[in-house]
Write a structure and sequence with these properties.
Jelly Rolls; Arc Repressor Mutant, subunit A; 12 helices
Length: 265
């Protein structure tokens, strides 16, 4: 498995993320419209995006003149060459769940484009006696600039390492499908061996988004998938998600989707 891939086209993004790559894309021309965590986004000229490993997107439309630069890296390279640890990573990564696009100023676009070119140059310069080191330095510069771009957009108080670890454990529970079984904050707090109040605090400090909103976001995605399966009745879906009654399930879906399960379906 190649540790770093540099290309000037999108390719099969979901194949790459399923293979463990995190993808950094800089849009040079045109636009790319896609669905991510059930929301529609447009990557336009002059902006960039980051698609984390094991995340899925659905390509909706791409302009004929679309052109980009893309750098794909495996997790080990991120861990080795992204020196800013949990202090900023937790805020940056968590915000990428909500919006994978980073909007750049003209100066930052130029800086980002230069970073991409430098990584490409260093990756191809295999005769360099310190090849791994200079490639690593170019990646570190790229990652630090991405942290800088993101920090400008999403301001917040740095969080502790322990807070960051707990937040990522919480998100891992949601990604693993726990939201199909429970949507109660106290249940997640118990799984993490902390109090509900502490979990509320961790989410707000880390992301500015409360714990209930995170639970709802992942639950809605799973419910939409279930409703798309017309072989299952609403009662079966309600029971599969551990709702106490079909009416409660209907109220929950209506509150989050603005339509009843039958209407949405």
């Amino acid at each position: 498995m190649e540790e770093v891939i540099v290309q000037k086209f999108l390719g099969d993004l979901n194949h790459y993320t399923d293979s463990g790559y995190t993808i950094h894309i800089l849009c040079m021309e045109g636009w790319f419209r896609f669905s991510y965590y059930d929301k529609v986004f447009v990557l336009s000229e002059g902006n960039c995006m980051i698609l984390m490993a094991n995340r899925q997107i659905k390509e909706l439309e791409i302009s004929e003149d679309f052109a980009c630069k893309a750098i794909l890296v495996v997790p080990q390279m991120l861990e080795k060459y992204a020196p800013v640890r949990n202090t900023y990573r937790v805020q940056g990564i968590s915000m990428l769940y909500l919006d994978p696009i980073i909007r750049l100023s003209e100066d930052d676009f130029i800086r980002c484009s230069n970073d991409f070119d430098e990584v490409e140059y260093r990756k191809d310069d295999i005769r360099h006696h310190f090849y791994s080191e200079v490639l690593g330095c170019s990646l570190t510069t790229l990652f630090l600039d991405f942290f800088d771009f993101h920090k400008k957009l999403f301001k917040g108080t740095p969080v502790s390492d322990s807070c960051a670890r707990l937040f990522f454990k919480f998100i891992s529970l949601l990604e693993a499908g726990e939201c199909k079984h429970t949507r109660t904050v106290s249940d997640y707090a118990e799984m993490l061996c902390i109090t509900p109040k502490h979990l509320y605090s961790i989410c707000l400090k880390s992301t500015g988004v409360n714990v209930t909103a995170w639970i709802d976001m992942f639950t809605v995605i799973e419910i939409k998938k279930a409703l798309a399966d017309h072989s299952r009745t609403l009662t079966q879906i309600s029971e599969a998600f551990n709702f106490s009654s079909l009416s409660y399930f209907s109220r929950y879906v209506t509150r989050l989707l603005g339509a009843s399960p039958s209407t949405f379906r």
